[in-house]
Design a protein that fits this description.
Elements: E1 12-17, H1 24-38, E2 42-47, H2 53-56, E3 64-68, E4 81-85, H3 92-100, E5 106-110, H4 118-122, E6 126-128, E7 138-142, H5 159-164, H6 168-174, E8 184-188, H7 196-205, E9 210-214, H8 218-229, E10 236-240, H9 246-255, E11 258-262, H10 265-273, E12 277-280, H11 289-300, H12 306-319, H13 334-352, H14 357-368
Parallel strand pairs: 1-2, 1-4, 2-3, 4-5, 5-7, 8-9, 8-11, 9-10, 11-12
Antiparallel strand pairs: 6-7
Helix pairs in contact: 6-9, 7-8, 9-10, 12-13
Bound molecules: 2'-deoxy-thymidine-beta-L-rhamnose.
Residues 20-25, 27, 56, 112, 189, 215, 243-244, 246, 249, 262-266, 282 line the site of 2'-deoxy-thymidine-beta-L-rhamnose (TRH).
Organism: Scleromatobacter humisilvae
Catalytic activity: dTDP-beta-L-rhamnose + L-arginyl-[protein] = N(omega)-(alpha-L-rhamnosyl)-L-arginyl-[protein] + dTDP + H(+)
GO molecular function: protein-arginine rhamnosyltransferase activity; translation elongation factor activity
C-alpha cells in the first residue's frame, strides 16, 4: 500500500524555527506546517521572529497556530512530534519536558536540502542523547532529498490540480504584470552579487521584448543598476515586485518563461513550476555550495537533451560565479526556452512520481511512535 493511503491520526506537532537570515528558515517551516495541517495534523509553529509571515502568509492557515519563541516563553507540555528545523535547538526546559513525558514525542531534526550523496547516508539516522536535558531520547535526522531513500520534497497534495486551473493571463493582469505581444517574462530572486549585468546584457542582445519581474532587495536593485548601465535598452523593462505571499510567489514562478531562484524553498518551488529555472545556491565562505550545485545538476539533468543541459549548466555556473565572467552565455531564444522547459517538466514529472516529504514524514513518525 502506498504510504499516502495509510490514514494518520491527528497528532499534535511542535515545529521550532529560528530565523537566522533571509527567508528560507521561515519559508520552509511555514510550508511544512501548512502541509501537515492539510493532512489533518495540528501544528504549533514556534518562531523567534515572525516578521516575514506578515507578507508571506498574512491570512495564516487553518490548523496552524503561530507562537512566539522568546527567551521568556513558557511552553505547554510537548505534543506528539517535535520538529526542530535545521538544528535550531529547542529550549532546554522544553527538551526536559519531552524527556520526562510518559510517552515522549518523536523528535525530528529537519535538515537542509541537497542532492549530495551524504543525504542518502544520513537520512533517518538517530542521534541518541547521552547527556543534557533530553538525556535518554533519540533525535532523528530527516533529510529532504530528490531520491527514494531520502525524506523527499515538500509538495502540497493539491499542487497539480491548482496548476491545472491556473489562469496565467488573469493572474498576471491582477498583479499589474500584463505582457506585451511576444514579451518574455523573467522572474529574478537572487542574492547580492548575482551577475545580473550578464543576464541583462544577454537578454538585451537578442532584442526580444522582455519583462523582468524582480523580487524586493538584491534583485530589484541589481536589475535597476544593470539596465541603467546598458543605457535602458528599449526591449527590456523592469517590474519591481512587492513581497508576494508564498502562494503568490509560487504563481509567479508558474507564470514566468524563465525563473531565477535561490536558497532552498524557492528552488524547490521552481522545480514544481516546471518552467526553465536557474538556481543560485546560498553562497558559503568555504565554497561548499560548489559541490552542492554540481550534485543537483548531475541528477536533475541526467536525462535532459544535451542542448538544454548545456544551457542550464552554463547559466548556473555563471549565476553562482563559478565560471569565467567574460565567457559568452547561451541566449534565451525561443528554442532554448522550449528545450529547457521540456527538461524542467521531465524533471518535475520524475519528482512527482514519488512521495512528498510530509507523506514520508508521517510514515516515519508512525514507525517511530
Ligand atoms: C521573493 C519572495 C519569496 N517568498 C518566499 C519563498 C520562500 O519560502 C522564501 C525564500 O526562501 P529561499 O528560497 O530558501 O531563499 P532565502 O535565501 O531567503 O533563504 C535561505 O536562507 C538561508 C539561511 C538558508 O541557508 C538557505 O538555504 C536559504 O533557505 O521566501 C515569498 O513568499 N514571496 C516573495 O515575494
Amino acid at each position: 500500500m502506498p504510504a499516502s493511503s495509510i490514514a494518520t491520526p491527528a497528532l499534535l506537532w511542535d515545529v521550532f524555527c529560528r530565523v537566522i537570515d533571509n527567508f528560507g528558515d521561515i519559508g520552509v517551516c511555514w510550508r511544512l506546517a501548512c502541509n501537515l495541517a492539510e493532512r489533518g495534523q495540528r501544528v504549533r509553529l514556534w518562531i523567534d521572529d515572525t516578521t516575514a509571515l506578515r507578507w508571506m502568509a498574512p491570512d495564516g492557515h487553518d490548523g496552524v497556530e503561530v507562537a512566539a519563541w522568546l527567551a521568556a516563553t513558557s511552553f505547554p507540555p510537548p505534543g506528539d512530534v517535535v520538529v526542530e528545523a535545521f538544528g535550531c535547538d529547542p529550549a532546554p526546559a522544553f527538551l526536559a519536558a519531552m524527556a520526562a513525558a510518559d510517552r515522549p514525542p518523536v523528535w525530528i531534526n529537519l535538515e537542509y536540502l541537497s542532492a549530495e550523496p551524504y543525504v542518502e547516508r544520513s537520512h533517518a539516522l538517530a542521534s541518541p542523547q547521552m547527556s543534557g536535558p533530553a538525556r535518554g531520547l533519540a533525535k532523528w535526522f530527516f533529510y529532504p532529498g530528490f531520491t527514494a531513500v531520502t525524506g523527499g520534497l515538500l509538495r502540497e497534495p493539491a499542487l497539480s490540480a491548482e496548476q491545472a486551473v491556473f489562469d496565467r493571463d488573469a493572474w498576471l493582469a491582477a498583479q499589474g504584470l500584463g505582457l506585451r505581444d511576444g514579451e518574455r517574462l523573467v522572474s529574478v530572486f537572487c542574492y547580492p552579487g548575482a551577475p545580473v549585468d550578464r543576464l541583462a546584457a544577454s537578454l538585451a542582445a537578442d532584442g526580444r521584448p522582455t519583462l523582468l519581474a524582480t523580487a524586493p532587495g538584491a534583485a530589484t536593485g541589481a536589475v535597476r543598476a544593470a539596465l541603467a548601465t546598458l543605457g535602458e535598452p528599449a526591449a527590456l523593462r523592469q517590474h519591481p515586485l512587492p513581497w508576494l505571499t508564498q502562494s503568490g510567489f509560487d504563481r509567479l514562478l508558474w507564470a514566468a518563461d524563465l525563473n531565477f531562484v535561490r536558497g532552498e524553498d524557492s528552488w524547490v518551488r521552481a522545480q514544481w513550476a516546471g518552467r526553465p529555472f536557474v538556481w543560485q545556491a546560498y553562497p558559503q565562505d568555504d565554497g561548499a555550495h560548489g559541490p552542492k550545485i554540481g550534485a543537483f545538476l548531475a541528477l536533475s539533468l541526467a536525462t535532459a537533451a544535451p542542448d538544454a543541459a548545456e544551457t542550464i549548466r552554463d547559466w548556473t555556473a555563471a549565476w553562482n560565479a563559478l565560471d569565467d565572467p567574460a565567457a559568452a552565455l547561451p541566449a534565451w531564444t525561443p528554442q532554448a526556452l522550449a528545450a529547457t522547459g521540456a527538461a524542467a517538466r521531465a524533471w518535475r514529472d520524475r519528482l512527482t512520481g514519488s512521495a512528498d516529504l510530509v507523506t514520508r514524514l508521517l510514515a516515519f513518525v508512525r514507525e517511530k511512535r
